[in-house]
Design goal:
304 residues, SH3 type barrels, Alpha-Beta Plaits, three-stranded antiparallel beta sheet, 10 helices, alpha+beta
Length: 304
C-alpha cells in the first residue's frame, strides 16, 4: 500500500518506481550500504531458516524416525542437531546477504573468541555440554535421575540447560555443564528395574524359618515385584534388641518404588500379625548391683 500511496501523492510516477525507491532507502555503514530491500531479504532468510528447520524436525520426529520405531530420545536428539545445522546455515546466508565477506566473518569470530575468553565461558561450556548430552546420551528425555539427593525426570535437553521435573512437581533448570561434570545417577538408563530393600527387626525367640518364609510370601504376592532377579529374604545379624532381617526385591518400574514400599510394609505387618511374629522395639534390662539397706527396709510414709 505504501508504494501506491506515494504514487498517488505524486512522489513517484509509477508503482514500480515507488517500490524500487522504497527498497533502495537505506544508510551507509562504511563501504556497505544497508537498504530496506536488503533487510527484508535478510529477514526472509532468517524466517525461512526457522520454517525449514520446523518442517524438517516434524518430518524426522513424527514421520520418518517414528515409523522406523526409533526411540523418542534419539528422535529428539537428531531433530535438535538438524535445527542447529539449519539455523547455522541461515545465519551464514544472512551475513553473506548483508555483504560480509569470509575474511570479515573470520574477524568477527576472532572478536567473538576474545569475548568468550573474557565473559562467555559458562555459556559456551553449557552449549558444548549440551551437544555432548545429545551425542553420548548419558541422560535422555524421560529418564529418572538423582542429583544432589533429589529424584527428577528429564523433560527437555536445551542448548544451555536441561529442564527436569522434581517429585514436588516443580520444574528445575540445571545447566548442562553440571550434568557432565558432576556425578549423576541415572536410574533408568538401561532399564527401569530398581532394587528395593525392606529392613525388618523381630523379637528374640521368633521362628527364623517362619520369618523368612513370610517375608518371601509378601514379596511374591505383590504383582509389581519382578520375578527376575528373584526376591531374597536374608537373616543379617543379631541386633541389640532384634533379630535383623532384610527383604530385597526388584521392581518392574522405578517410578513405583514408593508405592511398592508402602504396600510391602502393610503386607508384612498383616502377615506377621497372623503368624504371631512380634516386630521388636528397643528394650533395655536394668541390673541393680547394690542398694543401700535403709532404702530397702524403710517403710512407706503414711500420707493419710
Amino acid at each position: 500500500m505504501l508504494p501506491a500511496i506515494l504514487m498517488v501523492w505524486g512522489v513517484y510516477d509509477s508503482l514500480e518506481d515507488a517500490t524500487k525507491g522504497l527498497l533502495a532507502l537505506g544508510v551507509n555503514l562504511g563501504s556497505q550500504r544497508i537498504t530496506v530491500g536488503l533487510l527484508i531479504g535478510v529477514g526472509g532468510i532468517v524466517y525461512g531458516s526457522f520454517f525449514i528447520s520446523w518442517i524438517l524436525q516434524k518430518l524426522l520426529v513424527d514421520e520418518a524416525l517414528f515409523k522406523q520405531r526409533v526411540e523418542k530420545g534419539v528422535r529428539l536428539s537428531i531433530a535438535r542437531l538438524v535445527n542447529y545445522a539449519v539455523m547455522l546455515i541461515g545465519f551464514l546466508l544472512a551475513l553473506s546477504t548483508l555483504g560480509f565477506e569470509i575474511s570479515k566473518i573470520t574477524i568477527m569470530l576472532s572478536a567473538l573468541g576474545i569475548g568468550i575468553g573474557f565473559g562467555l565461558q559458562g555459556i559456551v561450556n553449557n552449549f558444548v555440554s549440551g551437544l555432548i548430552l545429545l551425542f553420548e546420551r548419558p541422560v535422555r528425555v524421560g529418564d529418572t535421575i538423582e542429583i544432589d539427593g533429589k529424584f527428577s525426570e528429564i523433560r527437555k535437553i536445551g542448548v544451555r540447560a536441561t529442564t527436569v521435573l522434581t517429585r514436588d512437581r516443580a520444574d528445575l533448570i540445571i545447566p548442562n555443564a553440571d550434568l557432565i561434570s558432576n556425578q549423576v545417577t541415572n536410574w533408568t538408563l538401561r532399564n527401569r528395574l530398581a532394587r528395593l530393600i525392606i529392613p525388618v527387626g523381630v523379637a528374640y525367640g521368633s521362628d527364623v524359618s517362619l520369618v523368612m518364609e513370610t517375608l518371601m510370601q509378601c514379596a511374591q504376592s505383590n504383582p509389581k515385584v519382578a520375578n527376575l532377579p528373584a526376591p531374597k529374604a536374608l537373616f543379617l545379624s543379631f541386633g541389640e534388641s532384634t533379630l535383623d532381617f532384610e527383604l530385597r526385591v526388584f521392581l518392574r518400574d522405578f517410578d513405583e518404588r514408593i508405592d511398592v514400599k508402602s504396600d510391602l510394609h502393610q503386607e508384612i505387618d498383616r502377615r506377621f500379625r497372623e503368624a504371631k511374629i512380634e516386630i521388636a522395639f528397643p528394650q533395655r534390662d536394668l541390673h541393680l548391683r547394690r542398694v543401700d539397706e535403709p532404702v530397702i527396709l524403710q517403710p512407706p510414709e503414711n500420707t493419710g
